[in-house]
Amino acid sequence: MFDTHAHLNFKRFKKDVDTIIAHMFAEGGFVGVVIPGTDLQSSKRAVELAEKYDGVYAAVGVHPHHNYDFFTGTSRKLIDDIEELLSSSKKIVAIGEIGLDRHTYEDTKYENYHVDEAFIQSQREIFIMQLELAKKHKLSVIVHNREAIRDLMDALTEAWDPYFEGRMVFHCCEPKQELLDFAIKHNIFIGIDGDITYTTEEALQKREFIKKVPRELLVLETDSPFLLPEPLRSEKKYPNTPLNLHLIAEYVAKCRGESTEELIKRTTANAQRLFQLAEHTTL
Q: How far apart are CA 53 and CA 116, in angstroms?
């Protein structure tokens, strides 16, 4: 298995990250995991973990929520700092997670945090700058979108380059036909997480959505420590970890009418292709 998105760099895993990673590769059937950054510090931590373990890779970048630093003028060097980090490790495989986000977060470290059109424009500028970094340094891209599909589509259309085909993923993709159509047209991977197992209206939509994703564009992710899949969520067995990826694989396989073994084989190969980690034959 390959978890394409797990925040093992977050403080929640400070005490047990070594144990989790050991279990993943010794008992969990994993061949890889990508740890994405959301700001400079978490990006640095992702690189530290990637350098420490075989099969662990890093993505570095600034999440749109943390663009607030740049927007308010407190950290104008964000992009320069991220680019400087790129020279620190060959285990960095992507820029991410980056994108656009109109959601208003109640739990935030930023005073007076609010989303307005000026902030969205700042997000867009930083997003495009980071896309350029990916192209310049020949890296893949992990795209975050929350409640900002139109903004995202406009930005990607403006900044699109054939280079990104087969090297971009829509992380925790919202179940919208517009996103899927764009992904199919541009050979963008679709990331599916544990929230597909929930009983919410969006989860129901995701279960229908996942049936339409081409098998060659599907990848799995846990978004650890978030999006704990059922039945663990109802049992409050937090936090989510990559070790729960098998639950997502089993659920997605059932939704699509495929065998779990074949789905894991295909999504693992897709993940390795997304991050340019191995040569592949068609499965």
A: 41
pTM over 0.85: yes
Provide the strand spans (E) within the chain: 2-3, 32-36, 56-60, 92-101, 140-146, 168-170, 189-192, 218-220
Return d(Cα 255, Cα 213) in angstroms, integer. 12
- Is 33 contained in some domain? yes
Which domain covers residue 38, as residue numbers? 2-274
The CA–CA distances, whole Å, from 6 to 62, 143, 241, 257 equal 16, 14, 7, 26
Would you say residue 155 lies in a domain? yes
Phi, psi of 224 (to 5 degrees): -50, 140
Q: Which amino acid is at 209?
A: F
Pair 218, 249: CB distance under 8 Å: no
Task: Check pLDDT > 60 for residue 278.
Answer: yes
Listed in sequence order, the residues at least 6 apart from 181 whose beta carbon sits closer than 8 Å to its beta carbon are none
Q: Which residues are CB-neighbours of 131 under 8 A, at least 6 positions away?
A: 95, 98, 141, 159, 164
